[in-house]
Specification:
By secondary structure, this protein is an alpha+beta fold. The protein contains 19 helices and twelve strands. The chain has three domains: 116 residues, no CATH class; 289 residues, archaeoglobus fulgidus dsm 4304 fold, CATH 3.30.2170; 43 residues, no CATH class.
């Protein structure tokens, strides 16, 4: 054992405290947590957290040296990838933004999904970058439950999936498809929305791919699958009616689009890396399901199960869930204190994406009564359900929290490593932000800035007032004004006011 190994094994609480104090973002988060936990935990919250982290770091180092059988956390380096190795790769970044005008109510009226495609290493700007644009006016949609707060979310998720699918269709040599946000959201919260009509889907598909026949084929493929497999399980009593009316139940439609993404990626050689990257996430599943159970198992084997109760002065810290509930730790916070820059955590299957998918009610367009539905068939089914998702955490710098990377398990074991390596490489371009640069660009591109909507709300009010006085205004004219107010040009974010 060399001198460095000895120092790591003899790590002291004071050394960890000094290390944490040198990371302002951690200090701020720990101080916030200290204000939210029980009063009995506040006085020594930071010091006790440092002792906890000292224990974990010692255990990790002992496992690496073979002095401990069980591994607490497997962390590996991913800083070996450089731009020369990815020379010529084509990458597309996807993100969506909502625009709203403050008139009678702050309701979003337009969604736009932006795509930013770049060929790494290309010196010709015209060949290197390409932007895509997919606007959807929420008021034009007949389906979806507009009274629900999450209505814009299901529209955005659907449009982003179609934007990604379009990128796969249009780009034969696409190597990486990266979404801003989770690759798959917590889907159970979106159950029960009124189904989309075929007209709605035509609006979504108006910017899909380059050939209209591809859009038509996508619709027919879903409706055929819905008739034979999906709707008989979700709503057996009304399956025939749903098919006859050509309705697109939102969760089923999204699950279908996820499977289409995987299908298209598999046809590429090599397979396209599809990933979602989440910043400032509040997930704690890795800590609750992977990290802390290993710690509790080790403590039981050593008959030291009261370790946490003694450390924090409690009597109820007897399980991972209770520990996280009481102390407010999240995956990002704990891994900020355990990972080194340039490392990523081991991958795990994220299991809470589809928790709660069960029986419920759904209302069809032009109906006022609810129909029974059962979405449990969409849970992790290779045939009609949502796909399995793996995740890991990547730490880029000492001044930022790790971000979470998600991939589809079905696309292979190498997806999570390759996605993490590229996300880290892209994030190194923005060392102060430590987030993939392409996602930062497409976020600005898709976002509808407040200064723009506020300015054009005045234009809308003016035209509305004049038109009302003259008695001459149509819905189409009003819609055109609204579209003009938010759509503008493809690069309108470049003309934002300077601070």
């Amino acid at each position: 054992m060399n001198q460095q190994d000895s120092q790591d094994d003899n790590l002291t609480d004071q050394e960890v405290i000094a290390d944490l104090q040198n990371q302002p973002h951690l200090m701020i988060k720990l101080q916030e947590n200290a204000l939210l936990v029980a009063e009995s935990l506040r006085d020594n919250y930071f010091t006790n957290t440092a002792k906890f982290i000292t224990y974990l770091r010692r255990a990790m180092r002992q496992a690496d040296l073979g002095q401990r059988k069980e591994q607490i956390l497997s962390a590996k380096a991913i800083n070996d990838l450089n731009w020369e190795k990815v020379q010529g790769e084509v990458v597309t970044f996807i993100d969506g933004g909502l625009g709203q005008v403050q008139m009678s109510s702050p309701v979003p009226i337009l969604l736009r999904v932006g795509s930013y495609r770049v060929r790494t290493g290309e010196r010709n700007l015209a060949e290197r970058e390409q932007f895509g644009y997919y606007p959807v006016i929420l008021g034009d949609l007949e389906g979806g439950s507009k009274e629900r707060k999450d209505f814009p979310d299901i529209v955005r998720i659907t449009a982003e999936l179609l934007g990604g699918l379009s990128a796969l269709k249009r780009t034969p040599d696409l190597r990486v498809l990266m979404f801003h946000g989770p690759l798959v959201y917590m889907m159970s919260g979106y159950a029960g929305h009124t189904p989309f009509t075929e007209k709605d889907i035509d609006i979504f598909l108006s910017h899909y791919a380059q050939q209209p026949e591809l859009a038509e084929q996508l619709k027919e493929d879903f409706l055929n699958e819905a008739e034979l497999e999906i709707y008989p399980k979700i709503a057996p009593d009304r399956c025939d009616e749903w098919v006859a009316r050509r309705l697109f139940e939102p969760l089923s439609w999204m699950a279908f689009l996820y499977r289409q993404l995987i299908k298209e990626a598999k046809q590429k050689k090599p397979k396209t890396i599809i990933t979602g990257v989440v910043e400032r996430g509040q997930l704690r599943e890795f800590s609750e399901k992977i990290l802390l159970p290993r710690i509790f198992t080790g403590l039981r084997q050593k008959q030291n199960i009261n370790f946490f109760n003694i450390l924090y002065g409690r009597k109820d810290l007897t399980s991972p869930k209770v520990l996280l509930d009481r102390l407010g730790y999240t995956d990002a916070l704990l891994l900020s204190m355990l990972l080194e820059p340039g490392q990523f955590s081991e991958a795990w299957e994220i299991q809470n994406k589809y928790d709660g998918l069960s029986k419920g009610k759904i209302t069809l367009p032009d109906e006022s009564y609810a129909t029974d539905a059962d979405w449990s068939c969409l849970k992790l089914s290779n045939e009609i359900g949502f796909p399995k998702v793996q995740g890991c955490y990547v730490k880029v710098s000492e001044t930022t929290e790790p971000f979470r990377v998600e991939v589809f398990e079905e696309l292979g074991k190498d997806q999570i490593v390759e996605a993490a390596r590229r996300a880290y490489l892209y994030a190194r371009v923005l060392p102060g932000y430590a987030f993939p640069v392409g996602l930062d660009i497409v976020d600005k591109y898709a976002k509808i800035p407040n200064w723009l909507t506020e300015s054009y709300s005045k234009l809308i009010k003016y035209h509305l007032g004049v038109s009302l006085q003259n008695g001459q205004i149509t819905d189409a004219q009003m819609r055109n004004i609204i579209v003009q107010s938010i759509y503008m040009t493809k690069r309108d974010w470049l003309f934002r006011p300077k601070v």
